[in-house]
Amino acid sequence: MINPADGISRETDTAGRQIQPGDRYSRETDTAGRQIQPGDRYSRETDTADRKRLEFGGKESRKIFILVCHKTNPLNPIMPSSTVAEPEVNLELALDHGMTEQEYEMVIDYLGRTPTFTELGVYSVMWSEHCSYKNSILELKKLPREGEQLLVEAGEENAGLVDIGDGMACAFKVESHNHPSAIEPYQGAATGVGGIHRDIFTMGARPIASLNSLRFGKLENPRVRYLLDGVVRGIADYGNSFGIPTVGGEIYFDDAYEGNPLVNAMSVGIVKVGETASATSKGVGNPVLIVGSSTGRDGIHGATFASEEISEESESKRPSVQVGDPFTEKLLLEATLEALKTGAIVGIQDMGAAGIACSTSEMAARGKEGMKIDLDKVPAREPGMTAYELLLSESQERMLVVADKGREQELIDIYEKWDLNAVVIGQVVEGDRVTYWKDGEVKADIPADSLVLGGGAPQYKREVKKPGYLDDVQNFDESSLDHPEDHNEILIKLLGSPNIASKRWAHQQYDTTVRTNTVNAPGATDSGVVRLKGTRRGLAMKTDCNGRYVYLNPRRGGQIAVVEAARNVVCSGAQPLAITNCLNFGNPYKPEVYWTFREALAGMGEACRALNTPVTGGNVSFYNENPDGAVFPTPVIGMLGLVEDVYEHTMTPQFKNRGDLIYYLGAARKGLGGSEYLRHIHGKTTGDAPSLDIEFEVKLQKELLEMIRKKQINAAHDISDGGLATTLAEMAIMSGKGALVSVKEMNGSDYELLYSEAQSGVVVTVPADNSAAIEKQVKSAGLPYYKLGKVGGNFLEIDQIIRIQVDELTDRYESAIPSAMEEEG
Amino acid sequence: MNKTIGVVVFPGSNCDHDAYHAFKHVMNVNTRFLWHKDRDLEGIDLLVIPGGFSYGDYLRSGAIARFSPIMQAVVNYAEEGRPVLGICNGFQILLEAGLLPGAMLHNEKLRFICKNAWIRVENDQSLFTRSLKQGEVYDIPVSHGEGNYFIDEDGLKELQDHDQILFRYSNRNGEITEEANFNGSVDAIAGICNRRGNVLGMMPHPERAVEKILGSDDGLKILESMLDGLAVS
Q: Which end of chain A is less congested by CB atoms within 10 angstroms, N or C?
């Protein structure tokens, strides 16, 4: 199970004891119980629970940081480090850079010599998990990535591109910024938003909407409230200033995310078909420009940091977190879209992880030509930066542009109009090598292809092992539960669970209406809907994943993440088109984590095939762990749907008219496994994930969309967290109208009927005079349905067991999160 | 109507296209953008300074915008008595430029707030509100972090004495309550004009409420009233 590439013998701990996967140790002692001493070669960071640090070699990337920025001149870290001699390159330095011995040998092999210090730095970031996908790519390739609606295949460009008709295409992608947000929530989240928007407009698409997907520990924990507050402010300040509406999001709280929050941001943009830009470099002699912000020392080794577990050490990596500047990003957006219109741009790529190193080598590798870069020309924020620092800096709001030779001045003029740098720093050259020059010397000379995913970057097949806990949870006996009797109390408690309660506190801090396209804003909808001006079309979008389900049953949990996201956009009146995903998992070197990863992806793939929603791309975030283990496996799905006629077909969950009939459509409400009811009322995370029959799900979604398009129903709402009772309560809360309901005709116990999170269920309302026709239609489609009751009154009444005033439901639903967040004043 | 609307574009403006869309495509009025480095306002009948984050607004909203090349022209334009409408960041800029009295503080709860708010018409005699009715309420989106209008007591009295308060935050029934005044503004002020009545600043976004599909088209009535004002001015 030890990575064969481990340089130093790492099968054993300091006392020579064999290390086992899943070993748990206190942080003060090593595996043998020996007190850890300062200066121990294998301290708690390396040999105990954080197994991966050994294998990943990331002994302490703080060391690298110190090495780069301070140690070179310990007397005066501000002094130009370029005046200080570079360290000698050897295996130990490579291990300090997070590489393995095998990887170091691969580098020597590719170069035919020992790498320079700068080359070692470039390889280490390019081959970090974050940039190379080395531990995930073999599994990602199994996902369905083809479909007639796709204009670009996954991974080919910065984001996926989907045909949405009327000569328009949609570029969309979701990405994680978990690690930075764990230690610097405001900037971590802000730069996450900035980075994902750049991925979209670098393709020539104008971002039109943002979404996010957030996971935290328990809201009772003050640190969690600090993180939530910072993350929401970071998303808000960046997105609001940048001027893109945030139209959707989800926030979950669970102990499993304690210490390692998940912060995933999604951007959706549109572009005319045929006007997209490409992230390639072609044409010998064409100039290469850097545009946007100057380059500073911020964010060096951010990608490496993102590729290891969070620990007590992490606080010291605060300097690895970049700082966002949404104003500059806005300028970069406008200038770039204007520059692309000139036709003078051959290729363009944004600079995210690994900055200049990554953008130059990836573009060169795609174009299969070489590139020569003069780092002295890069506008620097501070004097004396070394080649190493310039290449690895992750300063935000920068892009790399390859221009048509002779037309670079046109581009420079446009960027200058927007008060931005645009400087020629090199050119496309013959051959396959990227060379980086500084002070008249070659600092790095590397075959571009050897650096990149799909080229020479390593790809690993990891060991897998089914986690032992799965049998225990899946065999949980629900009949052993001691249910509370008072359903009124249960429902009120559920509505106050932060996972179900209104997230208005967060959404209200986001600008949701700028650009006047938002039809369904976050909150009172199943998915965000944005109209496309000048057409009748709209796009529905949703981020979704229930990590608890994936934890309880990785394969089915993966399926559910996809089908539920699809059901959400269908409930808004859209045809699901394609997905992007952000795969948040633990340490891939733990076989149990990798088994879960593989299973969840298999489940996602099955659901995507059934729904014909291919995967357009996304992002993998491993090493989401805290000292107690991995977070819930959380493959967040970003679903894109097309509303054919946004003026006629957009659907919302609110009850509309008194007297409308309420129907349940879908599968049997059976099983309480993984439910919020079990978690919040019984304190249990157990049982099997909710049941799902994918074929049935597809049929339900097809029929539901048909009914919406025919304007047969007045409201639709997906049944998800909290079950049927919560769904009905939400429909009442959002409309201020009550309902009189009975579930007696459905089979099952009250607890299952009201609180089961079984999949493939929706509640719809229908005008009373139309009900017979609709019943007939649903019956002929072979869908089970039950008439539940009708809209009216000021109470939600379910049989004789629930009777609560809508105002009281609303109070509970709306006040839970604000009162938790504002209690400290 | 053969009037022309000019929408100022600062580099960080982000509601410029919304104002343009509302006037040009929804209301069918000639509309054009004016770049912040321009100084020529020839042929413009109503000048709109839109919302956004003019120059990033890291220092204080509008503090840098007032020094931009176009603002000297805007000041001259206003001093000639020609109509200027500042929305959100535009209001903040007009305050910083001294074209309107008072200042903006951070929202009382120190958080950005985006939602639909009710605003009540306080004065239906002004150039901008002559087609509205005093006491009527409108459902208009707000979206700001610094919209907590402040003015000292003497200043407030002057505003009141000269009927310069055009809009206040109210509830749906037109009652001015503490809850309705969500950002903590002095006297629940949502929009004011200068003494001469040709410069209006308001935090709510009427240009975001011009079509039913966006949730409200109440903003259309407010913008139409402004055009009616132009017709007689």
A: C
Distance CA B85, CA A710 (A): 44
Looking at residues A435-454, what average pLDDT do you find? 95
Q: Torsion over CA of A625, A626, A632 and A634, rounded to 10 degrees?
A: -40
Ordered alpha helix ranges (H), A342-454? 355-367, 387-392, 408-417, 448-451
Predicted confidence (pLDDT) per residue in A28-84, tens digit:
444 445 554 443 433 333 333 333 332 333 333 333 333 333 333 333 333 345 556
Classify residue A62 as exposed, middle or buried by CB count within 10 Å of its CB (0-12, 13-18, 19+).
buried
For residue B150, is pLDDT > 70?
yes
Query: What's residue A41's pLDDT?
Result: 37
Residues A577-611 pLDDT 10s: 999 999 999 999 999 999 999 999 999 999 999 99
Split into its structural domains, chain B has a count of 1
Identify which of B11, B51, B213 has the shortest CB distance to residue A531: B213
Domain hosting B167: range is 4-232
Q: Global pTM?
A: 0.90
Is residue A651 within 8 A of residue A708, CB to CB? The reply is yes
A325 touches chain B (CB under 8 A): yes
Say how far apart CA B223 and CA B202 lie, in whole Å. 12
Cα distance between residue B186 and residue A38, in whole Å: 59
Rounded to whole angstroms, the Cα distance separating A502 from B69 reads 45
CA A466 to chain centre: 25
For the segment A522-530, the average pLDDT, to the nearest whole number, is: 92
**Closest B-chain CA to A515:** B18
- C-alpha angle with apex A106: A103 to A111, nearest 5 degrees? 130
- Tell me the one-letter amino acid at B81: G
Task: Give the CATH number, domain containing residue B32.
Answer: 3.40.50.880
Is residue B129 within 8 A of residue B224, CB to CB? The reply is no
Residue type, B229: G
- Chain A, 217 to 236: residues with Cβ < 8 Å from chain B are 233, 236
What are A439's two structure tokens?
Answer: 């002070």
pLDDT tens digits, A240-278: 999 999 999 999 999 999 999 999 999 999 999 989 999
Chain B 106-165, residues with CB within 8 Å of chain A CB atoms: 109, 111-115, 141, 143, 145
Nearest to B121 by CA among B79, B68, B157, B163: B163
